[in-house]
């Protein structure tokens, strides 16, 4: 299958490396420099060892929509600009898979003219070490479902994914995004504010109490019934990625904009619609925004 990947951050590099094992992958980057570097040196995956895979890369403005499947891996706050660039090139025969944190992107993609649109979530730990180098810190689940259109391309992707990078096709896209949103809402802002690894949220009894309070409030805003399932999700991710730093922690420490608006910002909007009081969510939202403001964040 011909696959285009838009966005060459940690997730874009990770997907391009693994999927190029069985598919014809082209990686679309924000800069010409990064595309040139990948074309010359390939993409390096760092795990127990290092391995390079050669694949073509092009600047994002050269995407023409001719792939069987295009996977969009840019951050939530970059998505509107990307959609503006590609909207007039969408091929009716092509399919799109969106892999953003939060749920704010649903209102952006619902009007796109594409035969099939999928959304998904990723639990793999990955850090971009340089423009063509990604460290795979921990394996996790990749879940995806149909947002609209046909299941065909998504099933083809899942059936031909590498064994150590499997993709689970599920029936309810909303449930996938809610599960990931809950995990992100608890782990990302707390680890970024406390400046700790994920596992410390469980190991430190005081941080754990705050995490559970934030979890309860998040589930209240989302009116989610199965609280035990979401509790297990948060605990499992903290345990599996105990020595990792969250993406929000990494973004703040490197002076980048975070996805707090797509995560806690989205929850604040939902709380306002439903008349739900959410002091923990508001508190940590403004803490992260304050850190962004103080740190002269770049996008």
TrEMBL record:
GO terms for biological process: pantothenate biosynthetic process. Its EC number is 1.1.1.169. GO terms for molecular function: 2-dehydropantoate 2-reductase activity; NADP binding. Pathway: Cofactor biosynthesis; (R)-pantothenate biosynthesis; (R)-pantoate from 3-methyl-2-oxobutanoate: step 2/2. Pfam families: ApbA, ApbA_C. The keyword Oxidoreductase applies. Keywords: NADP, Oxidoreductase, Pantothenate biosynthesis. NCBIfam families: apbA_panE (TIGR00745), PRK06522.2-4 (NF005093). Catalyzes the NADPH-dependent reduction of ketopantoate into pantoic acid. This is 2-dehydropantoate 2-reductase. It comes from Mesobacillus campisalis.
